[in-house]
Amino acid sequence: MRRRLAARRFGTTPVNRLRKWLKPGLVVLLAILVLQAGTSLLVRTARVRAFLTRQLQISFGRTVEVRGFSASLFPSPQLDADGITVYEDPNFGHEYVLRADRLSAGLRWSGLLRGRFELGTLELERPSLIFSRDHEGRWNLERWLPAATPAQRSGAEAASPAVATTPTHQLQKIDISDGRVNFKVGDDKTSFAFIQVEGSVEQAAPGRWRMDLKAQPWRSGVALQLAGTVRVHGDVAGTSTRLQPAKFQMSWEKSSLADVFRLIGGSDFGVRGTFAGEATAESGAVSAPGVKNAEAGDWLFSVQVRASGIHRWDLTEREDNPRVGARLNGRWNPGVGILQADDFVVETPRSNLRGVATLKSIAGSSFSVRVDSAGVQAADLLDWYRAFRPGVAEGIRANQYFTGGGNFTGWPLVVNEVAFSSPGGRWTVPGFAAPFEVRAIRGGTQKRKVIVEPFSVSIPAVTIAGAASKESGTTSTVASVDFSLLHDLDTRTGGIRIASRSARIEDVVSVANAFGRQLQNGWELKGKVNADLRWDWSADETPAWNGRADVSQGKLQVAGLNQPVDLANFRAEWKNARRKFTLAQVGAFGATWSGSIEQPESVPPDFAETENPAWTFQLHADHLDAAELDRWMGPRARPTWLQRLLPAGLGGAAAPAPPSVLLQRINAEGDLRADELTIEKLKLKQFVAHGKLAELKLSLREAHAQWAGGEVSANAEADFSAKPKYEINAGLEKISIAQTPWLTKVSDRLAGTASGSLQIHAEGIGHTALIQSLTGKGELRLSNVELRGWDLPATMALGEWRTGNSRWISGAATFHVSDGGFDLNSLRLASPSAEFLLKGSVSFSEDADMTAESHATGRKAVPQSTVRFLQISGPLSGLKVSLEKATAQQPGD
Q1: Beta-strand (E) ranges in 410-507?
Q2: What letters, b where the CB count within 10 A reaches 16 and e where it falls short, cover 186-206?
Q3: CA 56/CA 63 separation, integer angstroms
């Protein structure tokens, strides 16, 4: 009641007040909507679009192209440019300098009310920016920045028609989302860029800007897995003072070392690990306290980088993988192109080096480094070696320290002067009774040559049965190895010399194995060695070994051989990647060998297993015995008579083949001589052959030997494929029948000579397969054949055994080998008065079944009513001969 009375008294109510302001409010709201819609329609007109485009061109100082504009006045004025492209200054090319999907600019009411175009906040969505540098070293960004002083102006330049003086705008903030920054040098766009650029640039005070940006590095054509994040934050001055003073802090985090190298070099160098770094840059080095020799335009910088878990890509990460850090502090003057690191430090867990570095990028690029002090522990070097070399023994320990210094120039770095030394040290290697003693080392440059003076390494005795071989608490030194180095800096030639005195080869092999160098692949060598070797290199040639190594009292065990090779006196020589082995006295295959094996053509010293270097040989043996070859290479079972005749093709049960990798890598050709070659009953004198083994194929050409008073010549082929094949073509010339080994028991009753040829083919593995596949044929020509003690023609004519002699002037025979035996097709012996015929077969089980016939010939021959023939049968060790009769016998048919 009181409220009503009061309302009546003053003449108003809440409803009346609402009604009073409702109409003005609706008018204002309608006006706002009309202005909002009108502004949106207005910016779409051609005249306003042209005006706005000109304003942007004035702001950017470049030609601008916009696909469309949109604007709003409430709640705050804002102008949006869709599909904006800011073109480059013609002096830097004809591409764009900035392109964005959308540019949103906040406008100030105060400026609009005064008729001015003032930007407040600028937002860029998916922008792409290109920083260009011309051949004179100027950046396109410099055209946006007025000169700091008149003296820095290089001269009047013609301005672009669309470019005008940049007015002062009260821009407060620039927001960037999902941006990209590209770089261009001259007309070539670099492959390096920044992507996913996020952050802001905000005006902290008049003329001072605070930036906070982050991005991911990127390189075209390279797949990156963990490139990391680069962040830049700091303060910078305005364009009127050419961004100075400024102070930046940059960081690169969560990056893999592999991607760092991919970004820098464009390829994967096979290095794995993690990487991180920080850097600061500050202008105004002249006024900075404690900075000496600073010049106008200098920037102070500080860089720290770290890498850890460094190892080769195909090796497992380990706790002792190397880690390294580097710090650089110095000055950079972009105007004169000089970067000076007054203090740089490289540190590892146990080592460090300190010095200064200088980089000049104008008027001829140059890079120089001076190391004032360096202290390196051998344990760190061992960790680096283990991180990039598989198979290094866990028990290796190094206790040695190096100090030195030097200066270097260029990239890659080239030594100008260097000096280093070490008082010596001790290296523990598994398998040896005591540590290796390394004597003092001194090295440095002298007359443009890097020289490491000779120093020795003492090799102790090996550990025997798990215990050190010691006497009275001391360990004897087995051998001593001397090392030295010489490198000519001008000709870029040099080498490392290694000299050993009475070292044991097995110790050298053990050391190499401990350091992951497998010298033995299918072979094992023991003995004493005296060596003088050099690892030489030059700028135009592949590094190669030169020198010699003499082996004595050595034993060489090769896979596939049942017994070791005795190296009583053996020399190996290397000359410019050529290798030669001289056999003065070598025992193998039951013979004493001499001669040489040489590689005449130059090949890379560390050829791969798939490559087959060509070798030549000239070898001589005093005596070769097939039985010894069988004991060295084949089974131990006693062969049959046919296996004794052809041991290479019919060696009984299949012998274990040597590792195929060794046989496949052999590519050799040369001459082989033997004073005597024995194949069971076959004894060949003065055997000579030209052999070749390549691609698992063996060939013997022009083989000659003296046998049974005559000569034997042959050619042979063997293909050691999955199903081996053998081919033999032999020729006989004037062989004495009485001297053949199968007729020694009746040699005093036989005379005559034989000549002819023989062809044999076999294939398969093992005795059974070779016997079943054996085929061949042959022919013989006989002359002056005589059988003493038996008148064979008279016996056949009279039907009773008659003593005397049988003579035939000539004869001929043909035979073939198949179906498990020899088939004698025909053996015909002829004399002026008689003719003898023989045919039949002999199985590989040594059973004979043959028939023979003799009849008179010539004018005095009398026809016989009864035909008599000999029946020969039974085992060869006890043949049964009987005289038979037949009325219709036609031998030789």
Answers
A1: 414-422, 425-428, 436-438, 441-445, 449-460, 477-488, 493-504
A2: eeebeebbbeebbbbbbeeee
A3: 9
C-alpha torsion angle, residues 603, 605, 607, 611 (rounded to 10): 30
Tens of pLDDT, residues 291-331 = 667 777 788 999 999 999 999 999 999 999 999 999 999 99
Neighbours of 695 (CB within 10 A): 12
Dihedral-angle region of residue 66 (phi above 0 means left; psi in -120 to 50 means alpha; beta otherwise): beta
Distance CA 870, CA 510 (A): 72
DSSP, collapsed to helix, strand or coil, labels residue 660 as helix
Question: Three-state secondary structure along 667-694?
Answer: CEEEEEEEEEEEECCEEEEEEEEEEEEE
176 token code pair: 């960037």
CB count within 10 Å of CB 241 equals: 15
Tokens of 40: 């949106």
pLDDT of 600 higher than 70:
yes
Run of H or E residues at 356 = strand 352-360
Of 392 and 286, which is predicted with more confidence? 392
Q: Coil, strand or helix: which one is 726?
A: strand
Q: Give the residue carrying structure tokens 């050799």.
A: 668
Q: What does the alpha-carbon distance between residue 181 and residue 735 come to, in Å, rounded to a whole number?
A: 93
Query: Which tens digit of pLDDT belongs to each residue from 30-81?
Result: 666 666 666 667 777 788 788 888 877 877 778 889 888 887 777 677 788 8
Q: Which residues of 152-165 are buried (b: 16+ CB within 10 A; e: fewer)?
A: eeeeeeeebebbee
What torsion, rounded to 10 degrees, do the Cα atoms 51, 57, 58, 62 define? -160
Q: Residues 771-794: pLDDT tens digits? A: 778 889 999 999 999 988 888 888
For residue 715, what are the contacts with CB-CB under 8 A and spacing of at least 6? 699, 700, 701, 702, 703, 728, 729
Distances (CA, A) of 370 to 415, 422, 859: 10, 20, 115
Per residue in 384-407, pLDDT tens? 999 999 999 999 999 999 999 999
d(CA 507, CA 529): 11
Domain positions in the chain are: 25-145+167-218, 520-526+538-622, 635-886
Instruction: Look at 2 and 280; give whichever has higher pLDDT.
Output: 280
* Banded model confidence at residue 704, pLDDT cuts 50, 70, 90: very high
Closest to 699 measured CA to CA, from 667, 676, 722: 667
Tally the C-alpha atoms within 13 A of residue 519's C-alpha that lie toward its C-beta.
14
End-to-end CA distance of the chain: 159
Spatial separation of the C-alpha atoms in residues 763 and 769, rounded to whole Å: 7
Tell me the pairing of strands 847-856 and 834-843: antiparallel
Output the pLDDT for position 402.
97
**Strand-pair category, 578-588 with 591-598:** antiparallel
Phi and psi for 388 in degrees, rounded to 5?
A: -120, 5
Confidence of residue 127 (pLDDT cuts 50, 70, 90): very high
Model confidence at 625, pLDDT cuts 50, 70, 90, reads confident
Output the CA torsion sign for 498, 503, 504, 508. Answer: negative
Q: Which residue has the tokens 């179906």?
A: 819
Please give the pLDDT value at position 608: 43
Count Cα neighbours of 762 within 13 Å in the Cβ-side half-sphere: 24
> pTM here?
0.72
pLDDT tens track for 195-208: 999 999 888 877 77
Whose structure tokens read 């020899």? Answer: 822
Q: Select from 102, 145, 106 the least CA-distant residue to 127.
A: 102
Query: Of 668, 642, 686, whose CA–CA distance to 845 is shortest?
Result: 642
Ranking 38-42, 442-446, 628-632, 646-650 by mean pLDDT, the lowest is 646-650
| Tokens encoding 58 | 């004035």
What percent helix, strand, coil does the chain show, rounded to 5? 15, 55, 30
